[in-house]
Design goal:
Length: 329
Amino acid sequence: MSMFKVVQRSYSNMSKGLKHLVSISDLSTSEFASLVDRAAYHKKLIKSGEPVGSEISDALKGKLVTLMFSKRSTRTRVSSEGAAVYFGGHPMFLGKDDIQLGVNESLYDTTRIISSMTSCIFARVNSHSEIQQLCQHSSVPIINSLCDTYHPLQAICDILTIKETFGETKGLKLAWVGDANNVINDLAIAALKSGISVSIANPEGITMNPTILEAAKLVSEETGATLETSHDPKKACKDANIIVTDTFVSMGEEAQKQQKLKQFASFQVSSELTKLAAANWKFMHCLPRHAEEVTDEVFYGKNSIVFEEGENRLYAAIAAIEHFVLPSK
């Protein structure tokens, strides 16, 4: 497992007042809560059907919003482009086959050029080191749209979904049944910042990144929410209000598929597992979903909020642009 220190925004361009969204660990508890609240605000505004004011619709008028994606995407691409259009910007998608990056040009050169022409960069990349380099060399905000260590937009979306469903987040329990990956790395911190206790179950041989556990301990001391880890899905799901899982084979791990499926054989979220949860339990998954991760009965059942969760990716992206890209009033 890659080991990274929690990024503390020590990039050289921070002296210019530039802010990047790298991980939830970088955000204060109040800053993260504000992002969730603003996502909810913009969702309500859009759902009302009323036209938004020019202060929103013209905020990025005449400006590019770049989506620099090295990985396939559905929700991230649609939500990021939708958020750019909401503020009047023009989204430009740059996939791995669209630009010279990695072929005839270095990441440094590409970052310097693209950031000189755009208002921000949504970056969906392979390694966390790529996000760090982008932040170091970019002259505009970088919004981490997924790397191998973090997925902050998903965490904002997930807490928004939980808050909408339960009304209040403080005192809830979230169970994670699955891999020690980028999604839980940010979701665990986001949940703790929201007063939600977290119980993580990973298969034998898989453990959480110590850097994440260290960050979680600090947040727990602040909010009183707790984090526990084990290799027992039943223990994690006991009295849980929210049960979450994700892909067992992440992009880039295809060669390990058979080994990982064997390792995760007893980790499918089924109705038997959910019987251990609290009476008001809900199921979440960031999608795309595979049958080995969760049964149809749970995924499409009345307790599933996966499609509401997916829609909320749009409002998370909108909140991120507002907070990190638009000039402060």
